[in-house]
């Protein structure tokens, strides 16, 4: 069953006393007026929990919720012979170094070429996952983010890893190359985030209840030539969390057109470098590091300690 997408529209002073359907069209340019009118008629546009009418007059500060059904993902994935860099594999799980540009699981517009497609070819056994099109997937990385991702081969492992993520027992360290040099060498960003009310592909700082807690520790490892290498340790796992928090510091990730600008890079330079968790069966503490991708060497930063291959061309 697809999960509805909720669009939150906050009326401005310019919207005063205008027809609701005309206002909604301006905030949701990808919707036709007729589609919005149909949603209103179906009771899927509300103000303070109550259905509205298309010809209602809008007042500044009114908060409307527009509900639409999410695009239905494909029913299932098929195996594809796509090379994978396996950092670890046993009877219960795999740890993969996901390349930038690969989508983790199937979804609307992504029916092939995903990590799931590759995993189904590599391993005949994966956990059933939270949904049919996500076998084995316990957590995810953005399409353009590279690095460590753990995959469950059975449902018991999936449940154990999911609990570790929920209880914040899994340690994650990301490396990001950002524009500029943060004022403080290390610190913590404690800033709730939620979906942007208009640009639905973006996240933005939001207060409760629409915003969810998001906390990231960071440390600057190297700085040179207008760029810095920053280690980020997120305590929560919100969508785009690190990207939003670094933008909030005034230092967006290099190559990130959504929260900064593309510069001369083909993708945002964010890498899930290190992952640490407890093995569900053995109880052993497992730690993995994903080698840095080639594009991190495009920025001539000093070599930090503990990252032996940083700055080396593969």
Tell me the helix content. Answer: 10-25%
Low-pLDDT ranges: none
Determine the number of helices (DSSP H or I, runs of at least 4 residues): 5
N/C terminus separation: 44 Å
How would you sum up this structure, described in words?
By secondary structure, the protein is of the alpha+beta class. The protein has 3 domains: 5-68, Roll (Structural Genomics Hypothetical 15.5 Kd Protein In mrcA-pckA Intergenic Region, Chain A), CATH 3.10.290; 86-166, Pseudouridine synthase (2-Layer Sandwich); 171-276 and 289-298, 2-Layer Sandwich (Pseudouridine synthase). It is 14% helix and 27% strand. It contains 5 helices and 15 strands. The protein has helices at residues 20-27, 33-41, 115-122, 155-166, 241-248; strands at 5-10, 45-47, 50-51, 63-68, 86-89, 93-98, 146-152, 171-179, 186-190, 193-195, 203-205, 215-224, 227-234, 270-278, 285-289. Strands 5, 6, 7, 8, 9, 12, 13, 14 and 15 form a 9-stranded mixed beta sheet that branches. Strands 1-4-2-3 form a 4-stranded antiparallel beta sheet. A hairpin with a 3-residue loop joins strand 5 (86-89) and strand 6. The radius of gyration is 22 Å and the shape is globular. The chain starts with a strand and ends in a 25-residue tail after the last strand. The mean pLDDT is 89.
Write a brief caption for the model.
With 314 residues, this protein is an alpha+beta fold. It has helices at residues 20-27, 33-41, 115-122, 155-166, 241-248, and strands at residues 5-10, 45-47, 50-51, 63-68, 86-89, 93-98, 146-152, 171-179, 186-190, 193-195, 203-205, 215-224, 227-234, 270-278, 285-289.
């Amino acid at each position: 069953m697809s999960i509805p997408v909720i669009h939150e529209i906050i009326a401005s002073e310019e919207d005063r006393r205008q027809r609701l359907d005309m206002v909604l069209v301006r905030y949701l340019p990808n919707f036709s007026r007729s589609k919005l009118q149909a949603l209103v008629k179906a009771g899927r546009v509300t103000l303070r929990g109550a259905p509205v009418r298309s010809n209602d007059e809008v007042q500044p500060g009114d908060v409307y919720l527009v509900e639409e059904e999410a695009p239905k993902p494909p029913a299932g994935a098929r195996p594809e012979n796509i090379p994978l860099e396996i950092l670890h594999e046993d009877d219960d799980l795999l740890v993969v170094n996901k390349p930038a540009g690969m989508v983790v699981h199937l979804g609307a517009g992504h029916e092939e070429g995903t990590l799931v497609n590759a995993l189904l070819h590599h391993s005949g056994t994966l956990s059933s996952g939270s949904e049919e099109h996500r076998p084995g997937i316990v957590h995810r990385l953005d399409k353009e983010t590279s690095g460590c991702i753990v995959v469950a081969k059975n449902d018991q492992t999936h449940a154990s890893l999911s609990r570790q993520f929920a209880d914040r027992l899994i340690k994650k360290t990301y490396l990001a190359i950002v524009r500029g040099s943060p004022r403080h060498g290390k610190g913590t960003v404690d800033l709730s985030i939620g979906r942007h009310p208009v640009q639905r592909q973006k996240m933005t700082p939001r207060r409760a209840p629409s915003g969810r807690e998001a906390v990231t520790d960071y440390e600057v490892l190297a700085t040179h030539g207008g760029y810095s290498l920053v280690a980020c340790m997120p305590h929560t796992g919100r969508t785009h969390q690190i990207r939003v928090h670094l933008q909030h510091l005034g230092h967006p990730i290099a190559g990130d057109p959504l929260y900064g600008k593309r510069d001369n890079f083909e993708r945002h330079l964010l890498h899930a470098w290190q992952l640490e968790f407890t093995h569900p069966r053995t109880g052993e503490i497992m730690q993995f590091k994903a080698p840095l991708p080639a594009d991190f060497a495009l920025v001539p930063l000093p070599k930090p300690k503990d990252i032996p291959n940083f700055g080396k061309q593969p």
